[in-house]
Amino acid sequence: PDLGQIYNLSDFEFVARHTMEKTAWAYYSSGCDDEITLRDNHLAYHRIFFKPRVLVDVTNIDLSTTMLGTPCSAPFYVTATALGKLGHPEGETVLTRASAQQDIIQMIPTLASCSFDEIVDAAVDQQTQWLQLYVNSDHEITRKIVQHAERRGIKGLFITVDAPQLGRREKDMRLKNVEDLSHVQGDDEDADRTQGAARAISSFIDTSLSWKDIAWFRSITKMPIILKGVQTVEDSLKALDHKVDGIVLSNHGGRQLEFSKPPIQVLAELMPILKLKNCQDKLEVYVDGGVRRASDILKAICLGAKGVGIGRPFLYAMSTYGVDGVYKAMQILKDEMFMNMRLLGATKISDLNDSFVETQSVPAY
Ligand code: FNR
């Protein structure tokens, strides 16, 4: 179908499933084990209801916001997803170009197919980019990556903390014929390629990473530090104690620990506790996983998230229609947001708060 026939983010997924190369589809779409967490990430949004306000003047709607201090056109960002060239010959730079046109922030993955500098060079003007970091067992390598990123103008360091080992993605493992990954940073000659694309590229990740390392990151960079992959209220409060700038409540899109709770549910538990402690302004809280509609984005913002990350939908849009596809996916979300905010009776992002949502169907903490 041509792009004009795409009406929502699931349409991109449908086209991708039927047109993408098998290996790429398996790597992008898979979750860990039985993919229950993968599905529940999205389903959890269905347990939250809106409480719309009528008779509000909703003539002018403004979606713009700031994330980590930088302005952007809407409260969602392109999260880090590895191996962009499996889906499109120009890889992650496709996401960069669409993000520039839409004024949306892009998080660059450590395991991008394009080199880090290629992705930064593809940026237009002062386009905001963040870096997702897999910490190398050799911290000198990590120090160089981080300091190089800071010199190149990266505005946030997202340290992935949910993946000391990559989860079992069986769909991916069944396709033993893994592509040549030699162009990927951190590729390991001895990696076992029969375990699927994920395992083949991840053997460098530091399994000893712990809370005490946060101080070291602080000492090597002035970039805001955000922990990506926090999965509980307990760890969120620990993150607060360690004075990081933010967290991403995330279970890696259901690719790591099966039965890790849906991030939107953790958000609903966390924010009242942060408020009680009067700490809601000390930590920017982001969520990702299963966001497929503007209503999902709005629910997260109402519950206190500063922004949401979106992974697979942009990968599917990129793989099927390139830059135009990703641009359209972002536009669909913005159009849906406009409509939903009008119907909700809110005109700007700062209007949104928990009085617009009903979370009684979310199990209490
Ligand atoms: C990811 N994700 C991810 N996260 C990360 O920190 N480093 C990485 O290299 C990757 N790679 C990656 C590849 C693919 C194909 C996917 C689908 C995901 C996780 C990602 O940043 C994010 O947490 C999820 O994608 C969010 O879920 P949705 O939006 O895909 O449902």
TrEMBL record:
The keyword Repeat does not apply. Its EC number is 1.1.2.3. It is an enzyme of class 1 (oxidoreductase). Residues 1-362 form the FMN hydroxy acid dehydrogenase domain. It is found in: Mitochondrion intermembrane space. Its cofactor is FMN; heme b. It catalyses: (S)-lactate + 2 Fe(III)-[cytochrome c] = 2 Fe(II)-[cytochrome c] + pyruvate + 2 H(+). Keywords: Flavoprotein, FMN, Heme, Iron, Metal-binding, Mitochondrion, Oxidoreductase, Transit peptide, Transport. One of its GO terms (molecular function) is heme binding. GO terms for biological process: lactate metabolic process. GO terms for cellular component: mitochondrial intermembrane space. It comes from the Eukaryota. Homotetramer. In the C-terminal section; belongs to the FMN-dependent alpha-hydroxy acid dehydrogenase family. In the N-terminal section; belongs to the cytochrome b5 family. This is L-lactate dehydrogenase (cytochrome). It comes from Hyphopichia burtonii NRRL Y-1933. The lineage of its organism: Eukaryota, Fungi, Dikarya, Ascomycota, Saccharomycotina. The chain holds residues 163 to 527 of 551 of the full protein.
